[in-house]
Design goal:
Belongs to the FAD-binding oxidoreductase/transferase type 4 family. The chain is of the alpha+beta class and 203 residues long. A hairpin with a 4-residue loop joins strand 3 and strand 4. It contains 7 helices and 4 strands, in the order ααααββαββαα. Strands 1, 2, 3 and 4 form a 4-stranded antiparallel beta sheet that branches.
Length: 203
């Protein structure tokens, strides 16, 4: 919150632990009903510091900018930002965000988390000095702990960004040894020489 406010100067409550943005589409009546209902739910929840309703599209876009600028707001804090991607059941999101914050503190790292509450997709983003070997090593340990988190809650080590090479060491913990071997076997059928997408699963 502090990083976004320092970057964008939107008048955000920097003492708040999180910001939830809710939007809807459809006809005017249905939008007003859904937004009003969501506002009532938020006001009745524990820990809610306030609810702001956008009066028009321009005001809504201004609020959405807080989400859109999350990554650049964090990236400017140091020489390297590592944007990651996990997914968890929606009911577990608050607990997982708290756990990510605790992981950051335990390793002496700054980790900002943003994402998509509608589908449980979270983007923990580690900010560190790329020329500091201790911070780089701490980030690697923190990432291993972060990737283990969603598995505790029935989630996944990826949400929308895929596995690639960075998460390959953590994939077996999610899908199991049998499925890993199955994927390798399927890859060999179509790529017996291992020339397609080297360095990924099945190569």
């Amino acid at each position: 919150m502090v990083a976004v406010e320092d970057f964008a100067h939107l008048g955000l409550d920097t003492k708040a632990g999180a910001l939830l943005l809710f939007g809807d589409d459809g006809d005017l009546v249905s939008i007003e009903q859904s937004v009003s209902k969501m506002a009532d739910i938020a006001k009745a929840s524990n820990g809610c510091r306030g609810v702001t309703l956008a009066a028009d599209v321009a005001a809504a876009e201004a609020l959405l900018y807080a989400r859109r600028c999350s990554l650049p707001a964090l990236a400017r804090l140091s020489s390297l930002s590592i944007l990651e991607d996990i997914s968890v059941p929606r009911k577990a999101m608050a607990e997982v965000v708290k756990r990510i914050e605790a992981i950051g503190k335990s390793h002496g790292l700054r980790i900002g988390t943003f994402g998509h509450a509608g589908d449980g997709n979270l983007h923990p983003t580690i900010v560190l000095d790329k020329d500091n070997p201790a911070e780089v090593a701490a980030a690697e340990k923190a990432l291993a702990e972060i990737f283990a988190l969603p598995l505790e809650f029935g989630g996944s080590i990826t949400g929308e960004h895929g596995v690639g090479s960075a998460k390959l060491p953590y994939l077996e913990a999610k899908i199991g040894a049998v499925n890993m071997q199955l994927q390798r076997n399927i890859k060999k059928v179509f790529d017996p020489a291992g020339i397609l997408n080297p360095g990924r699963i099945g190569s």
